Amino acid sequence: LNWNIMIPIGELRYTIQFITKTATKDEYGAEVITWTDSLKLRASVKYVGGDKTVDKKEVFNSKRIIFTTYYREGINDDDRIIFNGKKYMIKSIAVIDYRKGLQFDTELINE
Fold first, then answer.
1. pTM of the model
2. Which of these, 1, 2, 6, lies nearest to 70 by C-alpha position?
3. What 8-state DSSP symbol labels residue 3?
4. Are residues 44 and 1 in contact, defined by beta-carbon separation less than 8 angstroms?
5. Tens of pLDDT along 14-33?
6. Which DSSP string corresponds to 84-97?
7. Could you give phi then psi for residue 76, rounded to 5 degrees?
8. pLDDT tens-digit profile of 45-63?
C-alpha cells in the first residue's frame, strides 16, 4: 500500500470487530474478566505467517495477521480483534504517518 495518500477505500475489504476487556471482582475477591464488543471497522488483511504444531496430542495453530484500518482513538493492545469468527491478540499497534491509519500486528488465540 502507498501511505503517501489516504488509504484507498477498496483496500479495506474486511470487517473486524474489536472487543474490550473489563476486569471486576466477584464476591470472593477473585478477578472476573469479561469481553465487550466495541468498535467495528473496515480493514485490509495481510497474512504474515503461521504454523501448526502438535503437543501431547493437542493441535496448536499459530497465525499472524496485520490488519490496517483508518485511524481511530481509544484502541489499545489489551483489546482483541475478531475476524472470521476467530479471536486475535494485538501484539503491537503502529500509527501510519500522522493519524492516517493504524496497523495491528496480531496473533491467533488458540481456544
1. 0.82
2. 6
3. T
4. yes
5. 999 999 999 999 999 999 99
6. TTEEEEEEEEEEET
7. -135, 175
8. 999 987 777 777 777 777 8
